[in-house]
From TrEMBL:
Gene Ontology BP annotations: microcin transport; transmembrane transport
Membrane topology: Multi-pass membrane protein
InterPro entries for the chain: MetI-like (IPR000515), MetI-like_sf (IPR035906)
Domain of life: Bacteria
Alphabetized CDD domains for the sequence: TM_PBP2
Name of the protein described by the UniProt record: Microcin ABC transporter permease
Subcellular compartments: Cell inner membrane; Cell membrane
Chief location of this protein within or outside the cell: membrane
Membrane-traversing stretches: 9-30, 130-149, 169-197, 217-240, 275-302, 322-348
Organism: Rhodobaculum claviforme
Residue stretches making up the ABC transmembrane type-1 domain: 126-345
Pfam families noted in UniProt: BPD_transp_1 (PF00528)
GO cellular component, one term: plasma membrane
Length: 359
């Protein structure tokens, strides 16, 4: 197992470099860089993308300056100073190598437009994403696994039919639509004012007692977590049911029953470990996918300033240090989580041996 782990760790380096190379190359062809963003704001207060949609006028602007749309009227010396400030006076290869060298030293730079380091910016948004990712994943597992087991045991019954209908309906409802429904019903939209409308904590959170802070936190996070859990809940329930159904039909279950083993011991002593292998071992990957891929729309609806909104705003503003810094960090963490998932497979089922796999 040690040799396999070492190979996977060594494979992380070229994989991560490949991710960064592809994304860095794509950015070079995307219009509306940070300098054009600044020029657009200074030249009229509008957005740079309006100028790209401006047709012939935008093209004329670009032609007169030679490089930047909307730069007409600004001194060339000022444009050159901006290029030096952002590092765009150097060739792309040199900029990429410098960036990767800094990242290897955990220096992710500073945001172009926020005057704050990328690390501090991510740490500032982290509580929201941790809250959504952690609680959504835990609730999905705690509800879906028992429900999926019961559906497998009572396969074909009325309980199975009705719960399957409810699960399908839940899966079909988009998370953002369910979030709006929750706001309308329980956050003072039209009916009940039970939960707060926005934020992760109340304005007077620092003045509350420890118990009050905990209750206030859960009071604010309830609706966003429910909205982000609904689709994962449906998928995980059906996956649990199908895994148990597949195991229940195997010969070792028939043999255990023939020996007089109780149904509960057959289910939880024999079937559970094999059926839950793929589900439990996949927990790290599920958590990271919810954690980093948290719904931007849900964060926006509930006015939560998390990593989803941070990534979107950085992409719109072409804040390259934030984009590449978070991409490097999350890519590295995602690769380690993939390795962790493999190790969990071995921990749950020692019969699995990755040493025999070809890499």
């Amino acid at each position: 197992m040690g040799a396999y782990v070492l190979r996977r760790l060594l494979l992380i380096i070229p994989t991560l470099i490949g991710i960064m190379v592809i994304n860095f190359a794509l950015v070079q062809f995307v219009p509306g860089g940070p300098i054009e963003q600044i020029i657009a704001r200074m030249d009229g207060g509008g957005d740079v993308f309006e100028r790209f949609a401006g047709g012939a006028d935008a093209g004329a602007d670009r032609g007169q300056q030679g490089m930047y749309v909307g730069a007409r009227g600004l001194p060339p010396e000022f444009i050159e100073e901006l290029e030096r400030q952002f590092g765009f006076d150097r060739p792309p290869l040199e900029r990429f190598l410098t960036m990767m060298w800094n990242y290897m030293r955990l220096d992710f730079g500073e945001s172009y437009f926020r005057s704050i380091s990328v690390i501090d910016l991510v740490l500032e948004k982290l509580p929201v994403s941790i809250s959504l990712g952690l609680w959504s994943t835990l609730i999905a597992y705690l509800v879906s696994i028992p429900l999926g087991i019961r559906k497998a045991v009572r396969d074909g019954s009325r309980f199975d039919t009705w719960t399957s209908g409810a699960i399908i309906v839940g899966y079909a409802i988009p998370g953002f639509l369910f979030a709006i429904l929750l706001l309308v019903l329980f956050a003072g939209g039209s009916y009940f004012q039970i939960f707060p409308l926005r934020g992760l904590t109340s304005d007077n959170w620092s003045e509350l007692s420890l118990v009050g802070k905990v209750l206030d936190y859960f009071w604010h996070i309830t609706l966003p977590v429910l909205a982000s859990t609904i689709s994962a809940f449906a998928t995980l329930t059906l996956l649990t049911k199908n895994s148990f159904l597949e195991e229940i039909k195997k010969q070792y279950v028939v043999t255990a029953r023939a020996k007089g083993v109780t149904e509960r011991r057959v289910l939880y002593g024999h079937v559970f470990r094999n059926a839950m292998l793929i589900i439990i071992a996949g927990f790290p990957a599920v958590f990271v996918s919810v954690f980093f891929g948290g719904s931007l729309i849900i964060e926006t609806i509930f006015s939560l300033d998390g990593l989803g909104r941070l990534g979107f705003e950085a992409a719109v503003a072409r804040d390259y240090p934030v984009i590449f810094g978070t991409l490097f960090t999350f890519g590295l963490l995602g690769l380690f989580v993939g390795l962790l998932s493999d190790l969990m497979y071995v921990w749950i089922d020692p019969r699995i041996d990755f040493e025999t796999r070809e890499t």
